[in-house]
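Record format v2
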Amino acid sequence: MHKDHDINVHEVTRVEGHGNIVINVRKGRVEELRLEIIESPRFFEAMLRGRRYDEAQHIMSRICGICAVSHTSASVKAVESATGMRISKRARLLRELAFCGETLQSHILHLYFLVLPDFFSVGSIVPLIKSHPEIARMGLGLKKLANEICRIVGGRHVHPISIFPGGVVHVPKPRELKDLKKALTGSFERLEKTIELFEGFEVPDFEGSREFISLRAAKGYPFYEGDPFSSMDASIGQESYTKRIKEYTVPHSTAKHARTSHGTFMVGALARFNNNHRRLHPRARKAAKRLLLKPGCSNPFMNNQAQLVECIHLTEEAISLVDRLLEVGLAAERPARPRRFGRGIGLVEAPRGTLYHEYRINRDGLIEEVNCIIPTAQNLRSIERDLGEFVVTILDRPRDEITRSVESLVRAYDPCISCSTHIMDVKFV
Amino acid sequence: MIPTVKKPRLAFFSFTCCEGCQLMVLNCEDEFPDLVKLVDIVNFREAMSEKSDDYDVAFVEGSISRREEIKKLKEIRKRASTVIALGACSSTGGLNCLRNRFPVEEAKRIVYGKDAAVRKIKDTIRARPIDSIIEVDHYIHGCPITKEEFLSTLKALLLGKAPEVPNHPVCVDCKMAGNICVFERGATCMGPVTRAGCNAICITYGSICWGCRGTVDNPNMDAHEETLRRYGLTADSVTRSLDLYGGCTVRKKTGRGD
């Protein structure tokens, strides 16, 4: 009854980085399934070796253009914990504001440029500029505002400048922040319309139970700060992260895969939502209800909706950060100096999930050892498992539709393939 | 009647890099709706599903670091009438050349351990700029590029002019931006020898010039080293600052081997 299928998507489009999907189905059974990661490795571990501690954030930012604020922040946090530097309240608030900008920009880019074309059955946002100019303009406007947050704090979104070990080396002017607040308040209208838009799109009915891992903070929704938390085991200490998350290599990928003792797990917006939904701003919780996103949701396609809910939360958060910054004052400051050199960990929630940097710095302030765990590498096993389970539910459909559907499943994870291949520090025993 | 001119067909390709320069192109939010009236974007994997091998202008981002990439790059050169290096990784090799401090086999061992024999990693060669493989018509330098540089290059091409690449050091822009000299703050700066184009943005935002646009065509290296020494910096920190973005090019230009 079942048809045979050879699905071979060479270089999945509208994702960050290079990957292929290979699925062979014989008599309704999946015989072969791979998400091949063909991105060139970058050797960041070798690049950072022997470099000075205050060059690390500049170098590691270059792992990824989209999540540069996250890599920069994880890097300075690792250096600060290795050197005993303490940063000011102002510096922390500014970094958190940059995080709001980056995650908003990354989510909006994903939802409007990468996901939305699927719902309109077009290949990119370009045809939408003509056919649905209102919608295209909404996406472009929201993205521009997110970039503006990063520009005000860090100079630019791609490879932020002002975030340094020990603090920040630039503070915005009060005027800039006040204008930003006005623009952010005005952006809710477009965000509400975006919710309306996504309410109208059908989400494939597909569930697969799994562990969700994200940070969880003492208060607030986690981005810049928090400790790792699992939906199955509750809290995981920072020091235990590499013990819980076991990375391994597979022959068809230049990025590692990862598992925990429970098997497959997922990181990213959906994981953060499931582990921290009570910490969301009421307006964001309302948005979740409208988008039919419920706590404990295990449909990976709903990662898109979780991102949109986070956009509402982050806009509220950015406004409140501006208020707190204006209260603390915007006097220029000099970054703290190292008190010692040693080993340190930096953990943040990048747009795509938990990001881990760990460095060992020698007594001359030079970096000797690097270990990074990248969100997308942690999701690859989950994506592959879902592809296998999902494809058998849609085998009766035309081949083109199957191909499109599996591509949109990969896309829902919002993989950042260049990130995931940039560090491979396999150590075999 | 005004003759209809065929819209130029643009393609974007990405090799070993962070894709941040493509992202800077996507950051032209205000210009985007007008842009697509003037050009046809026919290949942009990060943002669109359609792919075409028929294009006029190819923007190439990223360094070449695998044999497989050499093949693809030569193919692009054959198809495009104009090839533009987009960003530092492509134009000078950029930060990727940092790993060339180690022989390829050692870099693989540092990163991959015993797994260095995997087929996909075996293919790895020393990181290099694209003009070490093919002829490049124009350069947009920077890590990342600025969207203004991208737009002005595109504008020049549409007008049939050669795009201009700044050939003065960052110090000139930095003075115009009204910044206090980084050396006066007691830090090292690559501004005196680095190609401008960035409006000295890193110094304006409190940092130093890291040298991402590579050196100007005739950098006065001796004077720069002298400056660095005058401010009490060691030979090691001089080499270090030159190495960050100059791994593939500065050494060649100044006869420091490689």
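Chain A touches chain B through 70 residues (CB under 8 Å).
Residues 89-119 of chain A form the longest helix (31 residues).
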